[in-house]
């Protein structure tokens, strides 16, 4: 196939029509809105760190397990850590960080 005026067509810059400008504008607006939404979600989202929470991650039969409790439940766990003997040291540290008295490990 012979292409007529190929060199002339290749030497000219591309012409942006109305449709191309609208498409590029829509993509730019979507990107800006996406970054704006991500920024707002980062600033607003997430739960605030509570001082009365304990969080202990330990090895379990199928991988890592997590013990997380806040408020009264954390206070009860720290008061009687007998059922968590395998993580007694980490639990004592977490209870001290949350300012709960840790009972004796049985």
Using DSSP, what is the number of strands? 2
Order of helices and strands: HHEEHH
In what range is the share of β-strand residues? Answer: 15-25%
Q: Outline, from the CA principal axes?
A: elongated
User: What is the number of helices?
Assistant: 4
Strand ordering within the main sheet: 1-2
**What is the CA-based Rg, rounded?**
30 Å
Summarize the amount of helix as a percent range.
40-55%
Distance between the termini: 89 Å
Mean pLDDT: 85
Question: What labels would you give this structure?
Answer:
106 residues, alpha+beta, 2 strands, elongated
Brief summary:
The chain has 106 residues and is α+β, with helices and mostly antiparallel strands.
Describe this structure in words.
It is built from 4 helices and 2 strands, in the order H-H-E-E-H-H. The chain is α+β, with helices and mostly antiparallel strands and 106 residues long. A two-stranded antiparallel sheet has the order 1-2. The radius of gyration is 30 Å and the shape is elongated.
